[in-house]
Structure formats: structure tokens, C-alpha cells
Amino acid sequence: MEGLRDRTRRAVRAELASRALELFAERGFDETTVDDIAGAAGMSKRSFFRYFSTKEDALFGELETMGEQVAQEISARPPQEGPWECLHAVLRTWEARINAQVDVTRLVESTPALRTRLLHKRDEARTHIIRALTDRGVSQLEADLAAAAAGAALDTVAREWLRADGSTDRLALTDRVFAMLRPAFLS
Amino acid sequence: MEGLRDRTRRAVRAELASRALELFAERGFDETTVDDIAGAAGMSKRSFFRYFSTKEDALFGELETMGEQVAQEISARPPQEGPWECLHAVLRTWEARINAQVDVTRLVESTPALRTRLLHKRDEARTHIIRALTDRGVSQLEADLAAAAAGAALDTVAREWLRADGSTDRLALTDRVFAMLRPAFLS
DNA sequence: CCTTGAGTGGCACTTGGTGACATATTTTGT
DNA sequence: ACAAAATATGTCACCAAGTGCCACTCAAGG
């Protein structure tokens, strides 16, 4: 079960993340130092780095284990399912988690350091996804391409969503984009 | 024309890049400081940053204007050509430029900082590619997806090439991967 | 009550990257 | 050929991200 330790730890993490978001939104990412964030949450810079390994992760912290989780969900899918159907089914629920609010997504999109960090996270996840797919019997090349293409799809969805100012039905949009790429993966 | 200035500048850049590669290969990227590289080339750290804007760029320097160049090549394609054919035709020659030698590609693939920087470069290029495609009349969504998918394709090619230890015919492989995704872009 | 262990602050340190100033060297206009 | 403008370089100071280390606090459990 979850003891007091873990609960307070989560609370402090949330507090830091929330302060960071405030400061980023009000001053910009580059103009906010880690000292600022830590100070706003009543702690030292050193302690900040005990909760988040980089400044960027104050925004992306919730996605830390994304790769493992996605890989696990993939393994749980029916084994006869094709790789693209599988990725579609799993990732359609993740899109909303990656891009929670428009403001944040817009901030990420307009801040090179954050954008870069997000790409890095996706790339880490890709590795896990590839393994999960090959474990299902998909060939290396197809698994690799499918994982990369799925990342491209999610990225496209996010930008299209931004273009519509966050007002479109994201699940429908995700389905549409995955459907566009579907013909490529009819093994 | 190209005067002495530009020639020496290119020479110094090349020298720095070459020293950097040597040091990275022998000690690893993280274990090599910018001071080391600059020192090995007989200059100061400050001057290094007058040739490369980041430490990573000592390896990627030649790709600096990739985005603009690719965009320009896209604009030069026959206007009735579909977006995917167009991207395929342009990018098939770029694959070999991005991954020149196996050693370098392997180094990049195994060094998070370098991998991240490469992703960043591709992302910058993507922006330009999207513009070039919409200028040809392609819709925002399709241009976005095609550009992202093309990046995914190149990435997949690079990794498959690595798996074969750099011994496969890369152009043929590139054509194969682009052909796989082709059905998605039959407008 | 005492021990153990986790969270914290503080400090020094490394390193990537930037700005400012002074000084050569090279290009260019006359 | 010479002055003026543009470039290249070094040096130095500086900022901020991130890490290692040590000492301290404080709650939990025997």
C-alpha cells in the first residue's frame, strides 16, 4: 500500500510542478531559473533536483514511465491483432495525457528546450514500443517503422489540435490520422 | 566568389569537427569538454563557439541549413507531383548525408545528448518542409503528416542500416521504406 | 529511548554557453 | 599605397543547470 512517505512525495512533486507551470506561463521557460521554482515552492534548488531530474521535467514529470506503460498495454492486446491496430488502440488514449491543456501544449511548441525534451521522451518510448511489437512477432523493420510512424501521427494530431485552438474532438482526429496511415501496415 | 576569409573559416571549422570526432570516439561525448576540443585545435573555448553554437554541432555542423535546402529542393520539383513522391525524391539523397559513416551514426545512436540534438534538427527541418508542401497546395494536415512520416522513414532506415552493420544498399532500403508508407498518401 | 533511514539545506564544483572589451589582421575604397 | 571598416581571436567575467558531499532534522519502529 501507499504509506505517508509516498503521499507527501507526490504532493511535493505536484506542488513543484504547479509552481513551475505558473512561472513558465508568466515569465517564459528560459527566464525562469530552477532557483525560482524551488524558491516558490519553499525549497532549495538541490531539493528540486531530487524530484525532477531536469528543469523541463517539471512539466513532463507525469510522462516519466510512459514508455514502459505503453509497452505493457501493447503486450496486453489480443495476440492476433496487427501492429498498427494495436498501436492505434493503445495510443488513442495517450494523446490526451500527453497534451493535457492547450496552454501547456502551446508553451511546449513555442519553447525549443521543451519541444526537444518532449521529442526525447517520445524517442525513449519508441524503444520500448519496438520491443513490445517484436515480442508479438512483428519484424524488426516493420516494428521500427510502425513505432516511428505512430509517433509522427501523435505529433501531427497535437499540432492540428493546436491549429483548431483546442476545440476539435481529439479522439476523432486521432482516429482519422491513424486511419490515414493504416494502409501502410496491412501485412 | 569565395575569398580567403571563407576558405580559412571552412578549414578551421573542419579542423574543429575532426578533432571533436576523434575525441568523442576515443573518450566519449560526455567525457570530452569543449575546452578539450578547442585546445586540441589550438584555440580558445570562446572561439569554438564562434564556429559551432553547441558542442553537439561539432558533429552535425554540416546539417545546419538542411531545412532550408530541403525546402528549396521540394519547391523545385514538378508541381503536379504528389507530396509523398516529392518527399521521397528529395530525401532519398539526404539519407547518406545525414548518416555519413557508421561509426558516427552509432555514436549518435548511443549518446542521448547527440540523439536528442539530431531529433531537434529534424524537427526544425520539418517546419520548413511543411511550408514547402503547403506552398504546393497540399493541405495543412496532409503536409504535416507527410513531413512527420518522412522523418520517421529516414529514422527507420538509419536504424535498419545500423542493424546490418552499414552493409546494406541504403538507397534501395530508403526506397523500400518510402514505398511501405506510400499507400497512406494517395490523395 | 535510541537507532535507522529518508528528506533537506548548504556548499563547492564542473561545464555549457554568453556578453564585453581589447587587439590583431584582412579586406576594401580611394 | 594608405586609411577605414569589417572579422577573427583571446581573455575575463558571468550565469545557470546539474552533481557530489556532508551535516542536520525528524518521524518510525524496536
Automatic annotation (TrEMBL), chains A, B:
Keyword set, alphabetical order: DNA-binding, Transcription, Transcription regulation
An example Gene Ontology molecular-function term: transcription cis-regulatory region binding
Keyword Ribonucleoprotein: no
Entry keyword annotation includes Zinc: no
DNA-binding region positions on the chain: 33-52
Domain HTH tetR-type as annotated: residue spans: 10-70
Gene3D superfamilies xref list: Tetracycline Repressor, domain 2
The protein's name in its UniProt record: TetR family transcriptional regulator
